[in-house]
Write a structure and sequence with these properties.
With about 850 residues, this protein is of the alpha/beta class. About 30% of the residues lie in helices and about 15% in strands. The strands form 8 sheets. The protein has a 7-stranded parallel sheet, with helices on both faces. The chain has a 6-stranded parallel sheet with strand order 15-26-25-16-23-21, sandwiched between helices. A hairpin with a 2-residue loop joins strand 3 and strand 4. The longest helix is centred in the C-terminal third of the chain and has 18 residues, at about 815-830.
């Protein structure tokens, strides 16, 4: 029998590389090549020359010749032999021996790609920053990472560990698929070959079987969720080995069936404030019993401190929550509680996040914190510094230069810090022994990745916690239907304060449309700034600053004829806008000048139809001449304002913090938010209102909020009661009835009609799937629906052939849906069919 590696040496490439000799041990490398074509979304095998035997470590960056071109990639695994019978090419070079692709992140990237129907290459571009050689050379060397017994017993080649590969192992009890046949090599690529595969069971049925399994995490014990695949005995803890080239649908079912994917019964609705006591008991169980994946050796290979977890930090502000102290105790004990957090109003949330991070870090586990924007990140940074000290965490932000960002990323990858906080891209931060993921303001649209495969930070972090057996803290002042789904499926529990505590910290909320106010002011129903708002502002200015939230930026976002009230539009159909009092009307879509003469009656004078923040500040300056007026929005966002009397006009998301809190807040133009053609209009409106109202002082301290909206609307009632949980449960129940996400999985396919139709006709959709559409989309962006009158929202003109189809499937069949549509994309790219089809799973906007 041939010695290990002898067959590989016999099949070495001929020609210029003939003088190279394969490595003596583990000469075959599996490489994830940086190519985004769906039909090439798999590892490829190359020979490791003896000269690179020591530097070609698992996770390092390499350069390979692929389809005749030098291409980057990541080395996933080294093996003794190749299953391919043809010739193999050699690795061209090792760009850096730094193992930047850790086993946990490689497995997560594969699972995210499978869940969203994307490619591994696209996800790795999001997960791993570009290399900066100077930063890499100047950073301190990595501390040795703990090794599991499986890793310690694995054969090595000149110090090279036999690292794991992309995970494809199903959970215990799920059907184990057999790999399916696939092409041996891409056309024109003599040096790269795909490891061969063998027969398989039907792909769609395997995916459906695995996805339909009950969520395994909540079978282990009360209040404890684990992913058995992440801690499977006898396997490396994060990246279980799998035959290269395994059937994608079965692999997707095993790795991408994330939390909350399993359909819950209708009786599960209603996990809001009513379940606080039960949640406290459940989280206390996690702290007291010995169950859960987090005890003992960490799921990512790290270990607890030798003297065991330390005592939990003082609860501090967490004592205001019914289960707050129990949650911290569970983190400090190394357990993995998972909670959807309804934060109390005020400025204490960064400190509460820092306290939770300190509890997890004290147990020897890593922490990843993700916030929507730089302002939130600055506050979290200050809180972490106060809680942990200046050198215990790093911040990852787009504002950092490439060298500094990569240096901080390396500090996390090398285990030099346990806590990483950042904006959206930090969801892939490679901390060791992950013990806690935190997501703040989980409904913010900044957390949705605009690049393929368009993952959302909430889904990625929940999937990461699910795979790694880590704790999760997902929350904000408001709550989305997706967060409610996590609780309805049993994956997480609510973490909220009781009603008495909420009333103590929430501001008082008034509406301008109440009967008593209408009796006093008949114009309150139609006035933009009714008398109640003016009286509240005058009284509050004696005690501090007053916040005005205006949904639209600019001066006048839309104008109409003064005589006949017909809206003025451009020839392309876009609305005419004014940038100033004496500015020329211009189209809001194409920027062309628009005549001020009415096309209907010929009148030449205009009236405001939609007032922006700049015009609102101008009017308020005339109404309150004795106080300064400040604006925040667009390119000029204020971070903080003093506690002196002032009027602050801000757009949603740009509200500055006020020293001591605002004395009052006025929420204007509710109709502009609620009338948006979006499935999430009411949910997003409540989130924006609550984020602004949370900056106001508590009601017992004189803080008040006036919302100019109909008091009978459910979203207004949720704000008045400060009850986002019940509103989210209502939203989820309505979407379940209508079969909208998150109660179902939805895929959006945009592109030329013929291309999308052909892909759907050839796809073997899972049972229960239905096709909706098509609807026309703008020519400039296949994912943007055409604007009014067929005009584009951002393109030069509509493309009559560009359409958008929606494919809806039961939530249990979502993974199979993603796999089938990815297979359709792979078939198109393999045949080089014309036209580009954009695939997006669970898009943020369906309408």
């Amino acid at each position: 029998m041939a010695a290990p590696g002898q067959q590989a040496r016999k099949r070495a490439a001929r020609g210029p590389a003939a003088s190279l000799q394969p490595a003596e041990s583990l000469p075959v490398a599996q490489v994830a090549v940086d190519v985004s074509l769906p039909h090439l979304d798999r590892p490829f095998e190359y020979l490791v020359p003896q000269s690179l035997a020591e530097t070609a470590t698992a996770g390092c960056r390499v350069r390979v010749r692929f389809a005749g071109r030098l291409t980057g990639g990541f080395l996933l695994q080294r093996t003794a032999e190749s299953e391919h019978q043809g010739r193999l090419g050699y690795l061209e070079r090792v760009v850096s021996p730094e193992p930047v692709l850790t086993p946990e992140i490689a497995g997560l990237a594969r699972a995210v790609a499978d869940r969203y129907g994307g490619t591994l290459a696209d996800v790795l571009r999001l997960a791993i920053p570009p290399r900066h050689a100077a930063a890499e050379a100047g950073s301190p060397a990595a501390s040795p990472s703990p090794r599991t017994p499986e890793e310690a017993s694995a054969p090595t080649a000149a110090g090279t560990p036999a690292s794991a590969s992309i995970p494809a192992r199903p959970e215990p009890g799920a059907p184990v698929p057999v790999p399916a046949p696939g092409p041996a090599r891409p056309p024109g690529s003599p040096g790269a070959t795909e490891p061969p595969a063998s027969a398989t069971t039907p792909a769609a049925s395997a995916a459906a079987d695995v996805a339909a399994q009950p969520d395994p995490g909540w079978q282990a014990g009360p209040g404890v969720a684990t992913d058995p695949a992440a801690v499977m005995p006898g396997q490396p803890p994060a990246l279980e080995g799998a035959a290269a080239g395994a059937d994608r649908t079965a692999r997707a079912a095993a790795t991408a069936a994330g939390p909350g994917d399993n359909e819950a019964g209708p009786g599960d609705i209603g996990t809001g404030a009513r379940d606080i006591a039960a949640a406290a008991a459940g989280i206390a169980d996690q702290a007291d019993d010995g169950t859960g994946p987090a005890s003992g050796t960490g799921p990512a290979g790290g270990t607890r401190p030798a003297d065991g977890p330390g005592p939990p930090p003082a609860p501090g502000n967490w004592s205001r929550y019914a289960a707050g102290a129990s949650f911290l105790a569970a983190l400090a004990a190394g357990r993995s509680p998972r909670a959807v957090w309804s934060a109390l109003p005020g400025a204490s949330w960064p400190g509460e996040i820092a306290t939770a991070a300190a509890a997890a870090a004290g147990a020897g586990r890593g922490v990843v914190i993700v916030v929507p924007d730089a302002r939130d990140l600055e506050r979290v940074d200050g809180a972490l510094t106060a809680e942990l000290g200046p050198a215990a965490h790093v911040i990852l932000s787009a504002s950092l230069g490439p060298a500094e960002r990569y240096r901080r990323w390396l500090a996390a990858e090398r285990g030099q810090v346990q806590v990483v906080a950042g904006t959206r891209s930090a969801m892939f931060a490679p901390v060791r022994d992950l013990g806690l993921v935190v997501l703040w303001d989980e409904g913010d649209d900044l957390l949705a990745e605009p690049r393929a495969p368009y993952p959302h930070a909430r889904e990625v972090l929940a999937l990461r916690a699910h795979r790694a057996g880590a704790a999760a803290l997902i929350g904000g002042f408001a709550r989305t239907a997706e967060a409610a789904q996590l609780m309805t499926g049993g994956w997480a529990r609510p973490l909220a304060a009781d009603r008495a505590t909420v009333r103590r910290w929430a501001p008082g909320v008034l509406t301008a449309g109440e009967d008593s106010e209408l009796a006093r002011d008949e114009a309150a129903r139609s006035a933009r700034l009714p008398g109640l708002a003016l009286r509240t502002v005058r009284e509050a200015l004696g005690r501090g600053p007053v916040l005005f939230q205006v949904p639209r930026s600019g001066y006048l976002a839309a104008v109409a004829c003064e005589r006949c009230h017909a809206q003025v539009r451009c020839q392309c159909g876009g609305p005419a806008q004014l940038a100033g009092a004496r500015a020329v009307p211009r189209c809001g879509w194409c920027g062309s000048a628009v005549s001020s003469s009415c096309a209907q009656c010929g009148h030449g004078r205009l009236r405001a139809l939609v007032t922006g923040a700049t015009r609102t500040a101008e009017e308020l300056g005339r109404a309150f001449p004795a106080v300064p007026v400040r604006t925040s929005g667009g390119s000029r966002v204020l971070a903080r304002v003093p506690g002196a009397p002032a009027v602050v006009v801000a757009t949603p998301g740009a509200e500055p913090y006020a020293d001591g809190g605002y004395a009052a807040a006025i929420l204007l133009d509710a109709w502009a938010l609620l009338s948006r053609p979006s499935l999430r209009a009411a949910e997003e409106t409540l989130r924006r209102w609550m984020n602004a109202a949370a900056l106001v002082r508590p009601g017992p301290d004189g803080g008040s909020v006036v919302v100019v909206a109909d008091a009978s609307l459910p979203v207004v009632q949720a704000l008045i009661r400060w009850d986002p949980a019940t509103f989210a449960d209502r939203e989820l129940a309505e979407r379940r009835e209508l079969r909208f996400p998150p109660a179902a999985r939805m895929a959006a396919l945009s592109g030329p009609h013929s291309a999308v139709r052909a892909l759907l006709d050839a796809a073997d959709l899972p049972p229960g799937a239905e096709i909706l559409g098509p609807v026309p989309v703008a020519g400039g962006d296949p994912g943007t629906v055409a604007g009014p009158a067929g005009g584009p929202a951002g393109g030069p003109g509509p493309d009559v052939d560009a359409v958008r189809f929606l494919v809806r499937a039961p939530r249990s069949g979502g993974t199979a849906l993603a796999a089938v549509l990815h297979a359709g994309q792979a078939a198109r790219t393999a045949r080089k069919e014309p036209g580009t089809v954009r695939l997006e799973l669970d898009p943020a906007e369906l309408i």
